[in-house]
Design a protein that fits this description.
By secondary structure, the chain is α/β, with parallel strands linked by helices. The protein contains 17 helices and 16 strands. The chain has 2 domains: about 20-50 and about 295-390, Alpha-Beta Complex (Aspartate Aminotransferase, domain 1); about 60-295, Type I PLP-dependent aspartate aminotransferase-like (Major domain) (Aspartate Aminotransferase, domain 2, 3-Layer(aba) Sandwich). It has helices spanning about 5-20, 60-70, 80-85, 85-100, 110-115, 120, 135-145, 160-165, 190-200, 225, 255-265, 265-270, 275-290, 290-295, 295-315, 335-345, 375-390, and strands spanning about 30, 35-40, 40-45, 105-110, 130, 150-155, 175-180, 180, 185-190, 205-210, 235-240, 250-255, 325-330, 350, 355, 365-370. Strand 5 (about 130), helix 7 and strand 6 (about 150-155) form a beta-alpha-beta unit.
Length: about 400
């Protein structure tokens, strides 16, 4: 029961966050979002969406979603194994398998569900799991749900990972899991080195490539292609909610035996309604037409990213990441991070400040995300605003 004492404790906790400038508020969006977005009645340049290729607002993608909505309505109002599977879901799973060259695929309502529903199916007591310390919250939660012995290795530290693999050599199964692209940093994992260690020590490798799929690699197959392990990976999880359309939905793809087990035992699959047909229809269109229609957008995304990062570095900003469109502006000062976000909002930029617990303490940042759809005019306006706000707050 939430009594008066507990309510006061909660109110005090909220007041402390507000006082420190770390209280996170949600903005109200009006109308259709794109590279420009209407927030609380004010039109702003949108620099914090995951719409890397600018696909989510393309007419053909929206038309595909509308077609699926017309044919299948809002869905079958049930979980997959009861009455929630359509031929559309099956077509999408087949298309994903073909796209990545894997044996089979299973759909989830989000990549968060794909990750939280994975590890407890594959691992039990007597097994061991190894997770990068900067992995996404969904991986962390998924690891907590399984009964394997847990190891957390320092970020991208291959020496520590190998020591841990050796330490757990007596485990029945060993599984290494990492983000392909670390969402708060825009940094690409050392997947080639991790894969080599997994092969050497007979461990399973799982990669969550939500921020890499469609963005990295010669053919857009993600960080696994960028790092040369496409076709060699055991298990991949990812999403349609970023470069592949933007609406949501996730999947796990890999060996048929893995997918078969997930269909029987993955709780986030078994107890969640099937993916909304409109999302599945849009995602299917993107996957089937990716090489011809959407792959060329990667060049524009790279051009925009290089241009923006170069200008900010010349202004004196400290940036995280590298070649990825995620461009963290590192202030390291959490209250100053929030102040910078507020100033940029006044200057017509929609960005959000990130502080603990979203990022480690003392690692405050503004995470800017570039899109292929951003115009040079929009980027230039953003650069001018960042110069003005940065100087005002004595960040640059």
């Amino acid at each position: 029961m939430i009594n008066d004492k507990l309510k006061i404790e909660m109110q005090n906790e909220i007041a402390t966050m507000k006082q420190s400038g770390l209280f996170k508020t949600e903005k109200t969006i009006q109308g259709r979002p794109g590279t420009e977005i209407k927030v609380d009645g004010k039109k702003l340049i949108n620099l914090c969406a995951n719409n890397y290729l600018g696909i989510s607002q393309q007419k053909k993608v929206i038309k595909a979603a509308q077609k699926a909505l017309k044919e299948y309505s809002l869905g079958l109002n049930s979980v997959r194994f009861i009455v929630g599977t359509t031929d559309l879901h099956k077509k999408l799973e087949s298309a994903i398998s073909k796209f990545f060259g894997t044996e089979d695929t299973i759909l989830y309502t989000s990549c968060f569900d794909a990750n939280t529903g994975l590890f407890e199916v594959l691992l039990a007591e007597g097994d061991a799991i190894f997770s990068d310390e900067l992995n996404h919250a969904s991986i962390i939660d998924g690891v907590r749900l399984c009964k394997a012995e847990r190891f957390r290795f320092a970020h991208n530290n291959m020496e520590e990972l190998e020591k841990q693999l050796i330490e757990a050599k007596g485990a029945r199964r060993r599984l290494v899991v990492t983000d392909g692209v670390f969402s708060m940093d825009g940094e690409i994992a050392k997947l080639d080195e991790i894969k080599a260690l997994c092969d050497k020590h007979d461990a399973i490798l799982v990669v969550d490539d939500s921020h890499g799929t469609g963005v990295l690699g010669k053919t857009g197959r993600g960080s696994i292609e960028e790092k040369g392990i496409l076709g060699k990976l055991d298990i991949l999880t990812s999403t349609f909610g970023k470069a592949l359309g933007g609406a949501g939905g996730g999947f796990t793809t890999g060996k048929k035996e893995v997918v078969d087990l997930l269909r029987q035992r993955s709780r986030t699959y078994l107890f969640s309604n099937s993916l909304m047909p409109a999302i599945a229809g849009a995602a299917l269109y993107v996957i089937e037409h990716f090489n011809k229609e959407f792959l060329p957008l990667k060049n524009k995304l790279t051009e925009n990213t290089v241009y923006f990062r170069t200008k900010l570095e010349k202004l004196g900003y400290t940036l995280g990441g590298g070649s990825h469109a995620i461009t963290p502006i590192m202030t390291m000062d959490e209250p100053k991070t929030m102040a910078l976000a507020d100033e940029l909002l006044k200057e017509g930029l929609y960005v959000r400040g990130f502080a603990y617990p979203v990022v480690p303490k003392g690692k405050g940042r503004i995470r800017v995300q570039i899109s292929a759809a951003h115009t040079k005019k929009q980027l230039d306006k953003a650069i001018v605003a960042l110069e003005k706000a940065g100087k005002k707050l004595q960040i640059i």
